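As a warm-up, study this chain.
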Amino acid sequence: QVQLVESGGGLVQAGGSLRLSCTASGRTFSTYPMGWFRQAPGKEREFVATIKRSGGSAYYADSVKGRFTITRDNAKNSVYLQMNSLKPEDTAVYYCSASSRGDSYYYTRVREYDYWGQGTQVTVSS
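Now compare it with the structure written out below.
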């Protein structure tokens, strides 16, 4: 069982930056591929980024590629999402997630993740 807690959301102007953090409970954090998703009002939850267990490789949604960076620190049981050049369309609740699946693939679907945080609001004003 893994419990995830996100932090770092807030209100920022377009073009600004935010860094989201997610801290996990338990000793097995390093065994989980981790992901970030987001959900805007009236829309489905969508994939943002994922990172493999070791942190050696990551994969991004086209909409954030080149602007967002996912990293992890297994010693701190934490995963991060650095968001630069933010746009109003990035406004959403951002969720951290952990997958119990292996490390062979990049997981981009909601159903591929087993544990979720409560979410943190990111609002980008124009």
